[in-house]
Amino acid sequence: MPRRKDLRKVMVIGSGPIVIGQAAEFDYAGTQACRSLKEEGLEVVLVNSNPATIMTDMNMADRVYIEPLTPEFVAKVVRLERPDGLLPTLGGQVGLNLALELSEAGVLQEVGVELLGTPLSTIKRAEDRELFRSMLQGINEPVPQSAIVSAVDEAVKFAREIGFPVVVRPAYTLGGTGGGIAYGEPELVEITTRGLKHSIIRQVLVEQCVLGWKEIEYEVMRDAADNCITVCNMENLDPMGVHTGDSIVVAPSQTLSDKEYQLLRAASLKIIRALGVEGGCNIQFALDPQSFQYYVIEVNPRVSRSSALASKATGYPIAKVAAKIAVGLRLDEIKNAVTGKTYACFEPALDYVVVKFPRWPFDKFASADRALGTQMKSTGEVMAIGRTFEEALMKAVRSLEIRRYSLMLPETVKLSNEELEKRLSIPHDERLFYVAEALRRDFPVERVAQSSQIDTWFLQKIKNIVRHEQALSRQGRDGLSPKNLKAAKRLGLADRTIAQLTGFSEADIRNMREELGLVPVFKMVDTCAAEFEAETPYYYSSYEEEDEAPLEPGRRVVVLGSGPIRIGQGIEFDYCSVHCVWALRQEGVKAIIINNNPETVSTDFDTADRLYFEPLVPEDVINILKKERPDGVLVQFGGQTAINLAKPVADAGFKILGTSVEDTDVAEDREKFDALLERLKIPRPPGGAAFSINEAAAIARRVGFPVLVRPSYVLGGRAMEIVYNQDDLVEYMRSAVQVSPEHPVLVDKYILGKEVEVDAVSDGEDVVIPGIMEHVERAGVHSGDSIAVYPPQNLTPTITNKIVDYTIRLAKALRVKGLLNIQYVIGLNNEPYVLEVNPRASRTVPYLSKITGIPMITLATRAILGRKLAEMGYRGGLCREAPHVSVKVPVFSFAKLLDVDVSLGPEMKSTGEVMGVSGDFAAALYKGCIAAGYSFPKEGTVLVTVSDRDKQETLPIVRELADLGFKILATSGTAKALQAAGIPVEAVKKLYEGSPNIVDLLRAGKINLVLNTLTRGRMPEREGFRIRRTAVELGVPCITSLDTMRAVVSVLKARMQGDLVSVIPLQEYSLEEVAM
Amino acid sequence: MMRAMLALEDGTVYEGDAFGAAGESWGEVVFNTGMTGYQEVLTDPSYCGQIVVMTYPLIGNYGINNEDSESRRAFVRGFVVRETCSTPSNWRSRCGLEAYLLQQGIIGLSGVDTRAVTKRLRECGTMRGVLSTVDLDPESLVAKAKNSPHLTGQALVEEVATREPFVVPGNGYRVVLFDFGTKNNIIRCLNRRGCEVIVVPPQTKPEEVFKYQPDGVVLSNGPGDPTDVSYAADAAREFMGRLPVFGICLGHQVLGLALGGRTYKLKFGHRGVNHPVKDMVTGRVYITSHNHGFAVDETSLPEEVFVSHINLNDNTVEGMRHRYLPVFSVQYHPEASPGTNDAEYLFDEFMAVMQHERR
User: Fold this and answer.
1) Residue A443 and residue A745: Cα distance in Å, rounded?
2) pLDDT attached to residue A375
3) Which of A196, A600, A792, A793 has the lowest tally of Cβ within 10 angstroms?
4) Residues 6 or more apart from B9 whose CB is under 8 A from it?
């Protein structure tokens, strides 16, 4: 069947903001799908609320709508665009749920839109627990005993019947939100309550628990002619019990014989046929390690995180093929783009091992519960490829950027054997390191296997690594023979680790290696284990014999990517990397990308001229550079990951293109930067760098409290805090110095005022400022967590002119070539002060590029290559304002992370962002808030409990709320202040004042919105914390900044005035043609 | 650790660690792309006369068990892997790969860049090679490779096949299986469908077969060049029109010759479990298990035979069917082991044909 000729226009739904459980993989899938559909000559309409994605680029679809992913807004797009078909299976759970809702609301039928690919009935069969179970029973596929319940007592009754532990899974959620494993009744009650709350249909599944069984996944494809293939299977190193998104995963499976492999493959095909999926599908099994018995655990009838991983692990483009299947093509009609010779109808053969390792946010959330279970907690992941398992594992570990190069974790050394053993049995983010320590202490493999339930095959491999480390350490400097060194490299040990163990320096080890000719070769990922010649330049390194990556002639530039998605470094930097690659290719330069994140567009096989799937650490990057001998290296698009590599790369003799390493250092080094500002006469908040408590105290006395304190060289505002008095400062210094002993702590006067952010492009002569963004929250809330507005709504021309002037002068003084981001705070004296200068691509570049229509990365890349902005049609200075107002709203994943305080501050906490666009501010903000998932009540009760400092400022806001008809509850102090101002209020009890208190009222559903500001101070404030956490867990919006609340009130007011907000395609944001 | 060396006739030499038996062995060097199924590969008699290179780098992970052998012993002439696993893990594992090879007298070579070997074979085609733990002189070993016998012309089928007929009881149809080196799973697949399977030596005369009064004849897989067993083609010709005939792999090639067709040697053959085969009648594609170095030439087939299956990767003939007689065959392995069960339906078709003919 060739592609269906009755289709002309197809709509694709994206997955919205990055949250835990739904990361960049759907940008990758959606981008592939849009391109795949356009390849087939179809007109593509795209809806997604996330502006940081490639898929929402102008050239990805004919019409791009950056609009809230709610039934109301998507229905508007459907009615406006009237597509022939809708492809719902590429936008994750969000896309799927939306399609379901639109269909049930009759919108699709009304407009005559056909759901493409997997039919709706299939989606229901896979998603609805009861239908799923009966379908599987119908085809004799085993499922664990389970019951679907919609009340807590039903769950308890069932668990008593089948016995504990049991797994609780809410229906229709992503990343296992609200689920968990219950070992006893109290736990079951708690988890079920939470789970019911999070399920959109108020249902949870209580299931027999097969803890410790092997967890195996298959990625399956099926076309409308019933041809089926499995792309890949994967085995979780962590057995059943840990969410697959939080498991270390290996591809292909390692401990399955052909009989087991085929048993589960056959089951997978049977299931996908019974379901009638047309496209891709992910099936998870639990397999008894002691028999052929297995259970089907879950089926995702759509492209998923696992399918992104499988695509990168095999080279097989699942999303691209799924999109083609959806428009009628058969698997045997679709070319295998990797070989260019064979067809998509085959099963990839791997001749390497792939390891996926999750990246958790616990470095940011020190107080979070680090235990892993059925609820996913990681924000991103890395993938590594090797010819041995050990090599792949060690590459994965160093790709994580958690400052680990080996399996050694200092904390583990101090533990007693008993403590160590205990830590083995509870899955947590660092368990692998504890396992290694246990093996280092000669715990028998069987014992470790018993405690951890990790298969001995994996443990033996880890033991190989540990043993070799021990041998190196024992033999020391003199014992390091070429043979040992070679063996170490084949096991994936980093030069740095070998150096540490033997007493050499890392440079010594590199020299030694290079003298011996012990350098990695680069092997190709070709989907077919070398059986056919492949065209796609997708490589990984290995200490092997034959290199397969001949140098390409012509100018070559290496782009360093941004690694795993984490808080502070999200999908934006992949957007920047990809655009840089495209711009290089347009300029006729061969673009080579290095990255290790399998969820991204940058690691797609056809993004760059050459892709190296490798750790972004000096050793591996320099190995590639030594091979490629590029004309230059670009570090300014890959976030802090790439910036951190600038110095080692430059020291190794490679040319950093764009702003120099020295000039970047001027911006990052406190003293040099102060001197520069001094010279330029540009003000910044007074302060200084302190290496000791006394120095910090002296600075604070000089500038006056409150002060903003932070370690130098920060990423995403790590360990940054506002300190109000001497005691707290001392306390901070004690803990902060532990955080980073090699760098000083910066102490600056905290200026309370409006925060403003600027992104600019410079070619060394002209500086183009596409726009200025104003933050809703005042300085003190991390810019990544602030609502940002473009164009600014409250800046006077004088301030604007100053900002433009400072920006241009700073860009010139720092000799910026490429991108520059500056954050300013506007003091009460109406003076802008410079807070921070980042001579690189920032988080806001995709957002600003989209709303202004100015392709910032393209301009920056060209400028770096030596072209002038003037010749590209851009004049220096601030560009003309775009006609629309757009608001960027942060999105948090607090529901996934228990024990994390939700209050906003200088430490970044958000995982993603959305954008709202409209003709006026209130409507844009309304869209942004809706897109971010705030379900603000139209009426009901607001709880107000604010710190003394904030009481005065709170009054007018609460008055407006009361005027809007909300009932106001407040704790005694706040209530008193409100009463005094004549605002009707009812006092409620604090936690320690007995029942019914705030938490009771929240649980009883009697509070619909919470406004709570932090009592400043170092000590965790348990009361506020508990209120905020309770609200989040119950899905009640909780606002912790008065600025945010003010914005919310204006949204509420706008909505009262009528819901007439229209949708606008990206193609119509700026009406005039932008010169390219 | 003992060293071993593999020399190819084109002069390339790969040195690594020896595992398994010591000594020297020559054969045709081929690669297999299956990620699992090494035990089945080792014991598949079709590999007789060949040194097998596994493209998946980690071999031996799940050990060797008592159930998955496809014949009475390992028939490969040598086994080349990137890394062998000394600590296998699987509930059915009874011993490690190394111990098994030692017991079977097979020389293993590990620690070589198997992807490099594979690319060599892909580019230059299948070659003769010598694997040795006793002679590590590249020149001498290459000379030996050049002087070693070609695959064609060796009596490989006779080496692997049964010498005496034997019966696997069943209470359904009676099937005579010509053993050219059959995999156990062909017998199991028939037996599971109720068939009584009479396994006969390759040179069994047609009259002997008719004496059994079978419902059908299956021509099994086996090693080497089909032209070396032209006697089997002569026998097969006798059954056509008188009994349903189902050929598998070498059996398919034998049938091709019996029908008057020609066979030819593929550059590097198909060995793996991921080959897409298209059914030309239904248009359906199946992922199938392969192990063959020869193929039937489509243009040589007579009018009354049509190509029923092709390989989607290189369009070679993967199956044929007689237009008028109950005679059909496939080049690949519907019995799998290793590989998918996608094509097992062919046994059902054979059952249906037998039923139809009996009526």
Assistant:
1) 42
2) 86
3) A793
4) B127, B128, B129, B142, B145, B146, B148
Residue B28 has pLDDT above 60, yes or no: yes
Neighbouring residues of B92: CB distance < 8 A, sequence distance ≥ 6: A257, B62, B63, B65, B66, B67, B68
Q: Do A343 and B62 touch (CB under 8 A)?
A: no
Closest CA to A402 of A441, A367, A432: A432
Q: Which of B36, B65, B80, B189 to mutate to test the interface with A (most CBs of A within 10 A)?
A: B36
Q: Please say whether the beta carbons of B128 and B26 come within 8 A.
A: yes
Chain B hits for A290, CB-CB cut-off 8 Å, are 91
3 state DSSP class of B79: strand
- What is the per-residue pLDDT for A1? 62
Under an 8 A CB cutoff, do B34 and A460 touch?
Answer: no
Judge whether B196 counts as a catalytic residue.
Answer: no
State the DSSP code for B229: G
The arithmetic mean of pLDDT across residues B14-23, rounded, is 97
- Of the candidates B145, B193, B152, B196, the residue with the CA atom closest to the CA atom of residue B170: B196
Residue A204 tokens read as 């949870």
Is the entire prediction scored with pTM above 0.90?
Answer: yes
Annotated active-site residue B249? The verdict is yes
Q: Report how many Cβ contacts below 8 Å link chain A to chain B.
A: 155
B207 phi/psi in degrees, rounded to 5: -60, -40
Dihedral sign, CA of B271, B262, B27, B48?
positive
What residues pair up with A834 in beta bridges, in sequence order?
A824
State in Å, rounded, how far the first CA of chain A is from the last one.
41
Give contacts of B85 with chain A, Cβ < 8 Å.
Answer: 457
Nearest-CA distance A144 → chain B (Å): 22
Whether residue B116 and residue A545 make contact (CB cut-off 8 A), yes or no, is yes
Helix (H) or strand (E) holding A556: strand A556-560
Closest-CA residue to B39 (of B238, B181, B226, B184) = B184
Q: Find out whether A607 and A625 touch, Cβ atoms under 8 Å.
A: no
Measure the CA dihedral B82/B84/B88/B90, to 10°.
Answer: 50
How many alpha carbons lie under 13 Å from residue B303 in its C-beta half-sphere? 0
Cβ-nearest to A351 among B40, B56, B338: B56
A:253-282 residues touching chain B, CB 8 A cutoff: 253-262, 265-266, 269
| A348 contacts in chain B (CB < 8 Å) | 274
B336 to chain A: closest CA residue: A262
Residue B80 contacts residue B56 (beta carbons within 8 Å)? no
Q: What's the pLDDT tens digit per position in A576-611?
A: 999 999 999 999 999 999 999 999 999 998 999 999
Cα separation of B141 and B131, whole Å?
Answer: 8
At how many degrees (to 10) do helices A661-668 and A670-680 cross?
Answer: 90
Taking CB atoms and an 8 Å cutoff, what residues of chain B touch A259?
67-68
Q: Which region among A90-104, A787-801, B104-118, B339-353 has the lowest average model confidence (pLDDT)?
A: A90-104
- Give tens-digit pLDDT for B201-242: 999 999 999 999 999 999 999 999 999 999 999 999 999 999
* Cα A270 to Cα A281: distance, rounded to the nearest angstrom: 12
Determine, for residues A545 and B119 on separate chains, whether the beta-carbon distance falls below 8 Å: no
Q: What share of chain A is helix, strand, coil (3-state, %, to 5)?
A: 40, 20, 40
pLDDT tens digits, one per residue of B256-284 = 999 999 999 999 999 999 999 999 999 99
pLDDT under 70: residue ranges of chain A: 1, 172-177, 200, 712-719, 736-742, 1015-1021, 1057-1060, 1070-1076
CA proximity to A910, closest of A888, A892, A887: A892
Is B333 marked active-site? yes
Residue in this structure with the two tokens 């009304």, named with its chain if needed: A110
